[in-house]
Amino acid sequence: MGTESQRKYSVSSLALVTVAFIAAIILSNQLFRGWRIDLTENNLYTLSDGTEKILENLQEPINLYFYFSDKATANIPTLRDYANRVREMLEEFEETADGKIRLTVIDPLPFSEDEDRAAEFGLQDVQLPGGRDTIYFGLAGTDSVDNVEVISFFQPDKEEFLEYDLAKLVSTLAQPQRPVIGLVAGVAMSGQFDPQTQRMQQPWAVYSQAAQLFEIRNLGTDFDSIDDDVSLLWIVQPKSIANPTLYAIDQFIMDGGNALIFVDPVADADPMAPTPGMPQGMPPMGQGSDLPAFFDAWGLEFSAQEVVADAQLALQISMGGGLRPVRHLGFLGVTSAQLNSDDVVTSDLSSINVATAGAFTVTDDAPADFEPLISATTSSALLPATRFSFLPDPGILQNDFVPDPERHVIAARISGKLPSAFPNGPPPTTVDSGDGDPAAEDESGNHLAESTTTSNLIVVGDVDLLGDQMWVQVQNFFGQQIANAFASNGAFVVNALDSLSGSSDLIGVRSRGTFTRPFTRVEELRVEAESRYRDTEQRLQDELAETERRLGELQSAREDSGDILLTPEQQAEIDRFIAQRSQIRQDLRAVQRDLDRSIERLGTVLKAINIALVPAIVILLVLAAVWRRNRRQDA
Length: 635
Prior knowledge:
The chain is an alpha+beta fold. The chain folds into four domains: about 1-35; about 50-175, Glutaredoxin; about 180-270 and about 285-390 and about 400-425 and about 450-500, Rossmann fold, CATH 3.40.50; about 520-555 and about 575-635. The protein contains twelve helices and 27 strands. The strands form nine sheets. The protein has a seven-stranded mixed sheet with strand order 9-6-10-11-25-22-20, with helices on both faces. Strands 1, 2, 3, 4 and 5 form a five-stranded mixed sheet that branches. It has a three-stranded antiparallel sheet with strand order 16-17-18, with no helix packed on it. The longest helix has about 70 residues, at about 570-635. The chain is extended, with a radius of gyration of 34 Å.
């Protein structure tokens, strides 16, 4: 009777435990809905503060349509893994937006209405290799008034900017008006009247390109206030700017405005007027520009009297007159290796051409963060700007050129709380006191001594990179100006304007880590084996050279030099080399086999851990629990 009661008690207990377990699951789903724990190394599923603010401040609903050809990519696991990453990020956006984002995931099958809609949105279709079907992997977003923004195709190599691209799309739909860019230029970028040709000059290509994407408002270089709707200042070649204008710029930045600033020690795009005594036919030296009041306050130092010269990046300059091209140490073709791949402004650019650029450095007590965007190589140095005036032969710059070990920074991003360049308030303005005597008026009631929010600026030490001759060839085709870019200068400017003209929340969204997790131990084994392989290969090359040298000595020592037959010594040397080469090739194959065995051995260990060790540990824990329960029952 006792045994039967104990059995009924055990069955009842098991039933109660099962019911309690199901109830706990239902209760946890209700109580902890939306709770997440991100245990990934780079917090891949945790949105940045800037993205969360953008989503929380949405005023109207936004529809997101994620198009991914799920069935067509069944045999492409890499792309499917990244698609899951994108979908999970979009679901996180939808969850954080609290109903203001409606996400729809669509598999556009061939010849379906979904495929037609994807094409209408402008999404890019990609042809699969060896197949007839095309795949879609893009995003379309619409707002309440049918404005449309798209990501035509998610490039896997841009994974670190996935959150930024998604946040930018949402932010653009939330504020569809074109940003207003205030242009403060000491050069005629928008075109001017040429007295020599009696015609209006065409605007610079970079100005025309920016005007298609933004509203450019020319503020001139003499003003004392900036309109509230201006979201960004584009300052180019600032020269002889009066204090009231400088103060207006300073307070604009202190009040949360951003700025893209171009200065230059020698701006060939802004030449000085010819002076008496200048040699005939000699181009005048370009004018320089600087903003020392601002840079000093922000902890920046600019080489206004020095130019960055780089022997590795120097471009070849045509001299004309049938002369051969000459490498100009001041005209640099900056490649992707010298561009910041972690910043959205320069991550996708391939090359930027600069001319007689200056360099920026940061002081130890700088109040803000300094992030280089464009840098020179370690084969660079700073040369006096005067060496670039009246320069008939750029080749003479290479005379006595000694590079220093620094990578001179030509452009950088500045972010943080910045102090005002006018710590004592606005500069006094001269007004008429009424009795004919001028008096100084000080209006310091609304003065901002420090930026109210995190400031975001980009400073560039070259104005010439904006000029057409440095990056684009403009041709007249039946009355239309056709621009063919041969460098990424225009893309750099547009990316910088786009980045800085967004909200401060969007600028705060930086690049993230990648979803791909390589097998680091396998890569270490591969690198180690390849190192041994290269050492053995180099030994083979050295022995080959030594054998050829020995053969040359034997050939020169022969008395019958006209005879083409080999001497016994030569034949023996060749036979020895052939045998040795065969042995070295066997060594190379052995190294490769060792690599394969090491990787297979590591894989076997991992399989043993996953298949046998973990279940064994679980079984041991269960057996220990059963043994402990039996001990208690026996007691």
